[in-house]
Amino acid sequence: MFRVSVLQTTDVIPSKEKSRCGRVGGVSRSEKMVKQESESANRPDNTAFTQQRLPAWQPILSAGIVIPGFVLIGLAFIGIGVALLVTSRSIQVLELDYTGDGNGSPCSSCSQSTTVNCKCSLNFTLDTLFQGPVFFYYGLSNYFQNYRRYGASKDDNQLYGDLSYFTSPSSSCSPYDYDGSKNPIVPCGSIANSMFNDTFTLTRTVSGKTDSVPLDGKGIAWWTDYNVKYRNPSVTPLKNAFNGTVKPIDWAKPAYELDTSDASNNGFVNQDFLVWMRRAALPNFRKLYRRIDASGDYQNGLPAGNYTIDITYNYPVRVFNGAKKVVFSNVSWMGGKNEFLGIAYLVIGSLCVVMSVVMLIVYAKFKFPDEE
Amino acid sequence: MARHSEEDAGMAKAPPAARQRKKKPKENKTRTVHANILHDCAKGEENPNRHYANNKIKTTKYTVLSFLPKNLFEQFHRFANVYFVFIALLNFVPVVNAFQPELALAPVVFILSVTAIKDLWEDYRRHRSDKEINHMDCLVYSRAERRYVEKYWKEVRVGDFIRLRCNELLPADVLLLSSSDPDRLCHIETATLDGETNLKQRQVVRSFYDLDCEFDPLKYNSIIECEKPNNDLNRFRGYIIHRSGRRDALYKENLLLRGCTIRNTEEAVGIVIYAGHETKAMLNNNGPRYKRSKLERQMNVDVFWCVIILLVMCLFAAVGHGLWMFQYGDNRPVFDVLSPEGTNLSPIMSAIYLFLTMIIVFQVLIPISLFVSIEIVKICQVYFIHQDMDLYDEETDSHLQCRALNITEDLGQMQYIFSDKTGTLTENKMVFRRCTVAGVEYSHDANARRLAMYQEMDSEEEECMSHGGTLPRRDSVTSHQSARVVLRSQSTKSHRRTGSRAEAKRASILSKHTAFSSPMEKDITPDPKLLDKVNDCSSQMDFMRFHSQPMSQLPSDLSDIIDFFIALTICNTVVVSSPNQPRHKVTLTCSGQKHQFGQTSVRSKRDHLWTGLHNDVLPQLHSRLPGCSSLLSSPSAESTLTKLHEEQPSGGLEQVFSPIPPSYDGKASWNLEEGELRYEAESPDEAALVYAARAYKCSLVGRLPDQVIVELPHLGKLSFELLHTLGFDSTRKRMSVVVRHPLTDQITVYTKGADSVIMDLIKPPDTARKFHLCLFLSFSKKIVCRTQHYLNLYAADGLRTLCIAKKILSKEEYACWLQRHLAAETAIQGREELLFESALRLETNLHLLGATGIEDRLQDGVPETIASLRKAGLQIWVLTGDKQETAVNIAYACKLLDPEEELLTLNEACALLLEESLHYIQSTPFLVHRLGLVIDGRTLAYALDKSLEDKFLAVARSCRSVLCCRSTPLQKSMVVKLVRNKLKVMTLAIGDGANDVSMIQVADVGVGISGQEGMQAVMASDFALPRFRYLQKLLLVHGHWCYSRLANMILYFFYKNAMFVALIFWYQFYCGFSGSAMIDQWYLIFFNLMFSAFPQLITGTLDKDVSAETLQQLPQLYVNGQNSEEYKPYMFWMNMIDAFYQSLVCFFIPYFAYADSDVDLFTWGTPITTLALFTILLHLGTETKTWTWMNWMSIAFSIALFFTVALCYNASCPACYSPSNPYWTMQRLLQEPLFYLLCFITPIAALLPRFFYRACQGTLFPSPVQLGRQLDKLPADIRRNILSLSRVKVGSPLCPKLPFLSLAKLWSWLDAHFLLVAGSGNIEVCF
Predict the structure, then answer these.
(1) Which of B153, B835, B839, B1152 pairs with B63 at a CA distance of 20 to 30 A?
(2) Which residue in A has a C-alpha nearest to residue B1106's C-alpha?
(3) Residue-averaged pLDDT of chain A
(4) A249 close contact with B: CB closer than 8 A
(5) Distance from first CA to last CA of chain B, Å, rounded?
(6) Distance CA B430, CA B910 (A)
(7) What percentage of chain A reaches a pLDDT higher than 70?
(8) Got the DSSP string for A201-235?
(9) Residues of chain B neighbouring A175 (CB-CB closer than 8 A)
(10) Which residue among B342, B512, B1072 places its CB closest to the CB of A175?
């Protein structure tokens, strides 16, 4: 890309002791040296740095260097792009919307009603094996978890298990810090309050027999969130720590009862809570709900068959024209399915090649200019 | 002519320290100083001097307490600082805050504290030096102890008596009351004040003159009235009132200024008049000048545009947010946050709050660090300019000084240069060349030959050096080429009139301290004809003296000759010193003779002054001497005479011939051979004339305040009683001395001055001496006529001409004049004007003696410098006070004017002429580049008139060179101002003398030459150069570099900030315009300050687009800066567009890559930050032309710093840093392949267009600078060939073997440029 050559400082640095013609030099060399020592107090340092003569690499963008460079980069990018595209193509993704917009959709009744724990179910069929490990996500769209004031509406110290913040939550949680009767809300803030509360169970129907697919909810949140960033107060039982506080307004259960099946999955270190608290970057996002437990029939993922997702429909999204979906996906070394990056590499790579061709034409025209 | 002008050299007026003024009960026009010892017991209240400042100096700006408020107050004068503090404070408002409030304060606190620490350090240094100065010792008289006691400087008060010893520094401005010197003189060296190295004599106040015993402070009981403290070094007015009621005038000659050094005088006593901050030295002490460069003005416009862009972006976001809120209506989504009161914010209120939030979020767009970075880069640039070996003058051991720190880049944008001539283009080392006496010309051919020889020696020497230095490099070149190169260099050598460099160096080895004393100037070969006449004349005079005949019987032409040389010898202010101890004057005192002569004469003079004019003692002295020259029986026996003369110093005849035998100062025992004497003059031409006279054996032996001792052939040492010296000034353009001639006892005025004024003052023939009327009438006329003729010849030769005239006053005339003169001298108000008028009264009806021609040699390398500056597209105007012929000739010599050019001379003050010449120019468009304009002062005054200035400019613009002669300092500055304001161009004024100060101050860049004329020009300048030719490298290389570096850095800064801010702007579309940022607040705030700061500083300081050699060899590249090609308004917008494009790439590649994933805000935002950093650094990389190890290091450091900070930050304190929660983000990202894939593609995609454009541009339509860069890459020998060939017209087509295809372009470009330059035939080129 660049033409590499170290600039030689061609100049012979003018010697201080220039040899003079004998006729003139009445002063001997040594005398002169002494004189220079004493008289040249202001003489600047003659170093490459002060004289701005540091050896330097001077790249010049000329066609002869740029064309091969572009071709090389272009080819490399095309190679990477192909590899990425192939990898991405091998990833399976299954998305099922259950917002219940249209009348035909299974959850339309739930989406209309305001009943708590409204039930509905989705059916889908897999023709082939869904290669494991399979991740089970829920997705929301048009949902602005990145809204600035929403993002600030939490109390990190409270979530760190600091009891003093239980009784007096940070003002950043306001107006979700105290309820109407001035009881502190724990966990406070809008993020916690708006926690996603639909639940899903997955069953497989094999030859008329219904079989519940095992879902693994452990370790779906970041390890650091579970172990470092969020902590329950070291009070046993956990319930006591929440004395004098109220649950968030929109919650059905207090924080210490989030998971009745697993005592260690309660309070602030509940996996679903942690996943929710990690705010999504963009308004259309998915969050990990469960992993398919790779055991028994599901060793290699989801085998072909008919599946049903039973949904406890609670979370309202119609108000803001949102949508809800469930997503099954497996991953590769580069993450989830994403063809964009492969295409981008291909495009940029081809652009480089095209540019080098353009420059070649230019070069050819230039090298043999019309006779003037 | 002495060019040290008395005028107030435009020193910027520093208001005297105001705090002392406040205490004053009433504002008097004068200051009254009483002696402190009279009021010793009356401490405090009663002391009449209590209101005056004491000698304690305090140059510090702050005290411990006042530092913080005062410094902050000063920093808030910069608008940007106020703006950033406002934004930081805005962040404390909960409704609008975007970041952690404390964190938002960080950058502005950082910037403020860096500046504050710098100020504090500077102030501390000032404090230390103040303390050191305040605690220096001096001797102050104490009444209690009745002796002088040691005190600190700071304890000295106005009215104290202080005793000064040799080589001591003066602690305050002191009125000299007593001196150990028998002549009541005190010598001081003023180098620290004005840079002039010659000794100055100061005189004891007249009334204390004749104290034989030591001065006793206890007996002092006079009161001094003088003017208020002011900063004029050359003026002091006042009078001293004795108890008797007698008033004596005080002059600047009585005042010793603070900071000077006592020399040559064992002891002096004086009374403090001004102390501390009221001393003239302190009042002259101004800080560095502050100017705003053109580039910065341009930049400020774009900063303004940035503000507009910022507001537009904020407004857009605010409206967007309002609409976003509006669409939800009353159905608030779950993620909406109610207001703290629990109610819904209306969309409009939200939008308003958001607008303020966005200003905080987007604040980075206004680059807070830009101003700091520019300052840092400029300091580095100044450092490099200081350090340049090529701008270092070995002879004077001085290098270039940048006195204005913030206009370095202006050097690269100059369009007009206004230059002084004398001392700037020329050496200002005057060499006597020829003279005319009484209408007869003495051509001094031998002298001319001698000078030519010096030149030859130099050029040979340099040839020798150049062979040694450059031949090895040419080894690779074919012999044919090398021969040509050598031939060329020889031909340029022969063109030079200068080459005095080596000679000057030799001189400097011989004597470093004494100015104007190179052998070239001293050893003048006399013209044999004139020497004969001088000998003849003086022997006749001697004969006449011996026979007591009146001198007036001497034939007038002979008397003119001797008078001519006497005038050369005494009509000046030259001080005589000895070379062995150059700081000691030659003293002719103390021995037995002194009582007879010295004392009496001194005393008698004063007596005369006061009692009237009576007969003098001198003739008596002469007559007392016995008839001694019986040996000289035959006056015409010249050989005998000469021999005798030579024997004088050793023989016993000495007593006979000289009234005052030389006797020696007790300490030193050097001999007084005339060859050993050194002359220290205030201006070099004075010295040149004295040396010239000495070549004719008329030598100046000593100078005392009231006598000048001259040694004449045959006549021996004669003492001329010096009655008055009417110093040189630029309006009168002449100086005069009034002496009493020892031989004729006549009061004689010798005047020396510019021919134009002297010729007008010559006595009309009809009033000539009556007794020779018939004979004289025609003769005198003829002399004037002939002299004028020769003067014209001299001027045509480029010599400086001076006329010498004399006048004999009758006693009555003198008495009459003296009376009024004395009145003028003692006046306090308007003394200058009165003295001026008095001088005018005296200098009339002169008798012309002759004229001299002095050569002022061109400085080394001036023609080459001018040629290359002109090639660089600079218009060079020469503004000089010299006469037209001289100026024109110098202009030809330094290639400013070309013999092929048509010269347009405007010497008539009339509008018609201008119109005619304008018409002439317009009618003949072919001539446009072949015109030179010469205009003289009178016409210039006319042309500068409001109604005509446009026409004048129109004429001047179409001329290739402009020469203004006979212009006054004011006119010089008016011309510069006119060109600057009317043509809207960048102007540079260069000069060396006080007369250039106003012009230097008016120009955009003022350059002072620290030469022979003192330091006034340097003090007023922005840059001070040791020699004119350094201007070439300063402008072409450093100017170009500074400009292109800074311009590129500023553009880059705008780009960088816009690119970074735009990332957040795009995000607003995906977060409901809520002011949310995916870039963590830390990165956002420290990005500019830390992560991306160093590489751009390194590039801004070190980048060289073209090498120094090429820049100097191809001056055409300078046009780049003149046309502001590195930074044009459209470039700002191009950069903005590029920034927006790049940010789009950096935003949307991660956007799509992470679309529909479970990525969280900061896991997505951190890669974007990283990508932006990479892109920004890589962008800098494509813009960096030279990569030194420092560039690599800085980029590596930046990246390392970013990752280190990110990793540390993301690993620390999981619960802090609300509202962001970046814990462990970077650590996780580094494990993801996707992150690396993004890092790979995004910067390349972002930079592809720019890179492609640069690559195409470099090949297809390279700019001259790019061509220069390509030239740099060529092997040295090919490059040299191209450059040497480029100087002549090249007609042949190129050889196809050129290593770079784009060279063909370079070639055609060079061709196009040089077609104009040379006119020689085609030269076949082949490599």
Answers:
(1) B153
(2) A58
(3) 83
(4) no
(5) 56
(6) 36
(7) 87
(8) EEEEEETTEEEEPPEE-TT-S-HHIIIII----S-
(9) 337-342
(10) B342
On the question of pLDDT at B623 being above 80, the answer is no
How many contacts does A have with B, using Cβ atoms within 8 A? 305
pLDDT at position A311 is 93
**Residue matched to tokens 């010269």:** B903
pLDDT mean across residues, chain B: 76
Distance CA B162, CA B1327 (A): 78
Share of chain B above pLDDT 70, in %: 76
How far is A62 from chain B, CA to nearest CA, in Å? 6
Q: What is the mean pLDDT of residues B804-817?
A: 85
Band of residue A139 on the pLDDT scale cut at 50, 70, 90: very high
Cβ–Cβ under 8 Å, residues A184 and A246:
yes
Count the Cβ atoms, other than its own, within 10 Å of residue B849: 29
Report ipTM for this prediction: 0.89
Cα A51 to chain centroid distance, Å, stands at: 48
Beta strand pairing call for A285-292 and B267-274:
unpaired
Q: What's the confidence (pLDDT) of residue B55?
A: 84
Nearest residue on chain A to B1041, judged by CA atoms?
A52
Strand pairing partners for B186?
A: B202
pLDDT at position B416, please? 94
List A residues 298-317 in contact with B (Cβ-Cβ < 8 A). Answer: 315-316
Q: What pLDDT is stored for residue B1257 in this prediction?
A: 82
Binding-site residue numbers of B are: 420-422, 686, 728, 752, 800, 880-882, 966, 972, 992, 995-996
Interface contact B1074-A149, CB threshold 8 A: yes
List of chain A residues whose C-beta atoms are within 8 Å of the C-beta of residue B328: 319-320
Residues on chain A touching B341 (C-beta within 8 angstroms): 175
Peptide bond into B1129 cis (omega under 30): no
Residues of B identified as active-site: 420
* B contact test, residue of A61, A70, A185 with most B CBs within 10 A: A61
pLDDT over 70 (residue B968): yes
Residue B712 has pLDDT above 70, yes or no: yes
Question: Residues B91-107: what's their mean pLDDT?
Answer: 83
Locus of tokens 């020592």: A37
List CB contacts (< 8 A) between A9 and chain B.
Answer: none
Q: Which amino acid is at B1239?
A: C
| Alpha-carbon distance B103 to nearest alpha carbon in chain A (angstroms) | 16
List, as one string, the DSSP characters of B688-753. Answer: HHHHHHHHTT-EEEEEETTEEEEEETTTEEEEEEEEEEEEEETTTTEEEEEEE-TTT--EEEEEEE
pLDDT for res A129? 92
Sign of the four-CA dihedral B1164, B1165, B1166, B1172: positive
pLDDT single digits (tens) B1290-1308: 333 333 333 343 455 555 5
Cα distance between residue B1207 and residue B422, in whole Å = 66
Query: pLDDT-derived band of residue B1219, with 50, 70 and 90 as boundaries?
Result: confident
Q: Which residues of A touch B1075 (CB under 8 A)?
A: 148
- A positions 1-30 inside 8 Å of B (CB): 3, 5, 7, 10-12, 14, 18-21, 24, 26-27
Of residues B937, B768, B936, B758, the one with CA closest to residue B852:
B758
The number of CA neighbours under 13 Å toward the Cβ of B820 is 15
**Residue bearing tokens 């031939």:** B487
Give the mean pLDDT of B312-320: 95
Is the alpha carbon torsion for B383, B385, B390, B396 positive or negative? negative
The least confident of A187-201, B312-326, B878-892 is: B878-892
Specify which residues B457 forms β-bridges with: none
In this prediction, residue B778 carries a pLDDT of 60
pLDDT score of B799: 77
Coil vs helix vs strand at B51: coil
